[in-house]
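Slide 14.
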Amino acid sequence: MFIETERLIIKDFTMDMAQVVHENSLDEDTRRFVPDEVFETVEDAAETIEFLMSCYDGSEGPFVYPVFTKTSGDNIGYVQMVPLDDGNWEIGYHIAKRFTGNGYATEAVKAFIPVIAEKAGIKEVNGICLSENIASKCVLRKCGFEETSEGSGNYQGEEREIFKSVLKL
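Slide 15: predicted structure.
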């Protein structure tokens, strides 16, 4: 995988990225909105990277790729497409706190979806986030997702207020 935008590069993980993945996962937004993506140790991050790399050649996912800035080369987060239990797919993304507010998530998602949708052979993508995650809701809307519901639902094994949306390709 290699996707280049005006300001970003999205490419495959390599094992030497474990330290920065660990560090990027520790911010308060990750803990608050996607706690299952917090890596408390570099070893935890490395184990996950190894698994994610093993998924690249298949068609079942998850497909998770790091995002880098072109100017500095910093690994600023990731973008992902994950299969859901019902056979549909969900977009996911996270930009480390120190890089947020620059439109990077929107830019990455817009570039990633067409490429990964073709790889996965899908015509529809779900966007799901906590209702209180205003930034993620904005990213989804800017990328063309249309709200399907907002209310109480299962989010990572807990009953929470969630925002659901869909993008038809």
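Speaker note: The two ends are 20 Å apart (CA to CA).
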